[in-house]
Design goal:
Layout (H helix, E strand, L loop, with lengths): L3 E6 L2 H9 L8 E6 L7 E6 L1 H5 L8 H7 L6 E4 L2 H15 L6 E5 L2 E5 L1 H4 L5 H16 L3 E6 L2 H11 L4 E3 L5 H6 L11 H9 L5 H4 L4 H8 L1 H11 L15 E12 L2 H6 L2 H14 L1 E12 L4 E12 L2 H18 L5 E13 L14
Parallel strand pairs: 2-4, 7-8
Antiparallel strand pairs: 1-6, 1-7, 2-3, 5-6, 9-12, 10-11, 10-12
The structure holds 2'-deoxyguanosine-5'-triphosphate and calcium ion (2 copies).
Length: about 375
């Protein structure tokens, strides 16, 4: 059973503008792609919630947005791609420490496999809150987080929780969660497919789930038909496709008993560290970053990390680094007791003096 999160930044471009111009707060803010043909030709890329409350939406002609916002003290701004990309990079950089499997699907959206960190759905909401906090602390941005047993459920939960939301759909809740949703809330079901389904009398996902898959395949073709069939049951389970080369390796274990004793915790990290070392060797990698992960008895996630002076593959050195990181963690948080603990090797480099695999982001 996997625990997958979808993180999507709320009204991204417009929020990015609010962030650097606090005087925009409370006003309708619309970020536009001007085509340049005349002063008002082009389309809306992103609108904040104030602008949306007047009916402005992404994709709408600028002219129409202006009409809807007349007399509303609205602010229209052109896109600033460089700035948004920098915020995007920082956002997903701040999420890397939560999982070694992250798929960034667009400038403001990513999926993370939290199976290991959350250790099941009981821990999922706490980790989701941590993701939101990490994004907020590194960029100032608010995002929404949906968590479910696969990407589809995570994405739909994220959309439904907006703005500034957090929604966890446990595996046993999937059927009920989907049943009353409009079919157009499913990814890939837009106006066209939605319209054809409505002609068949299908409005809700629960109704779609009752349609014979054979009929769906005949009407929509095998691939879309199969998708609709699986999606309606919440069983469309596409694996995450990390876009970048591996940036980190991690292992988390559940401790034999809750503990705040560094030696006792380290003892149980010996095997995971050894395992990571063989994987490093197997992939011809070394690392410079070492991270300690601690999950407390109340399911809060704590991380500490450091960078070694030079690339390393040595187990003893990792254990020494972990010792100081865990001691620091337990020292700084009075009364902290860990239920689970983990190790993360990051800033991976190819052995043989080659450059780093990717442009690594700084760790907090
Ligand atoms: P949300 O997620 O509903 O709170 O709102 P957004 O604005 O974040 O929408 P989303 O996640 O679909 O898209 C992320 C960014 O991508 C958005 O801020 C601007 C850009 N974008 C979205 N739709 C369009 C579009 O139709 N045209 C252009 N040029 N950019 C778009
Ligand atoms: Ca968004
Ligand atoms: Ca998005």
């Amino acid at each position: 059973m996997r625990v997958i999160a979808c993180v999507d930044i709320d009204y991204f471009f417009a929020q990015a503008e609010e962030l650097r111009r606090p005087e925009l707060s409370g006003k309708p803010v619309v970020v536009c792609v001007y085509s340049g043909r005349d002063e008002l030709s082009g389309a809306v890329a992103s609108a904040n919630y104030v602008a949306r409350s007047f009916g402005v939406k992404a994709g709408m002609p600028i002219r129409e947005a202006v009409r809807k916002l007349r007399g509303k003290d609205a602010v229209l701004l052109p896109v600033d791609k460089q700035y948004y990309l920098e915020l995007s990079r920082r956002t997903f950089g701040s999420l890397e420490r939560f999982s070694s499997v992250m798929e960034v699907v667009s400038v403001d959206e990513a999926f993370l496999d939290l199976t290991e960190l959350a250790g099941g759905f009981e821990g999922a909401a706490a980790v989701g809150a941590e993701l939101k906090r990490a994004v907020r602390e590194s960029t100032g941005l608010r995002c929404s987080v949906g968590i479910g047993p696969n990407k589809l459920i995570a994405k739909v939960a994220c959309d439904r929780s907006k703005p500034d939301g957090l929604m966890v759909v446990r595996p046993e809740e999937v059927e009920l969660f989907l049943r009353d949703l409009s079919i157009t809330e499913l990814p890939f079901v837009g106006r066209k497919v939605g319209g054809r389904l409505r002609e068949m009398g299908v409005e809700r996902v629960g109704e779609l789930a009752k349609v014979d898959p054979q009929v769906l395949a005949e009407r929509f073709g095998r691939s879309l038909g199969t998708y609709l069939y699986l999606a309606s049951r919440g069983r469309y389970d596409e694996p995450l496709a990390p876009r970048t080369e591996r940036r980190q390796l991690s292992r988390i274990v559940t401790l034999k008993r809750d503990s705040s004793d560094v030696d006792e915790i380290l003892q149980q990290l010996l095997l995971p560290v050894e395992d990571l070392c063989s994987r490093l060797a197997g992939e011809g990698l070394a690392h410079r970053g070492v991270g300690a992960i601690g999950i407390s008895t109340d399911l809060k996630v704590y991380t500490r990390s450091l960078t070694l002076p030079r690339p390393n593959k040595d187990r003893e050195q990792i254990m020494r680094a972990l010792r100081s990181l865990l001691a620091e963690m337990l020292d700084e948080v009075p009364g902290l007791k860990l239920r689970r603990a983990g190790v993360r090797l990051h800033e991976l480099v190819r052995m043989g003096g080659q450059s780093a695999l990717t442009d690594f982001t700084e760790e907090p």
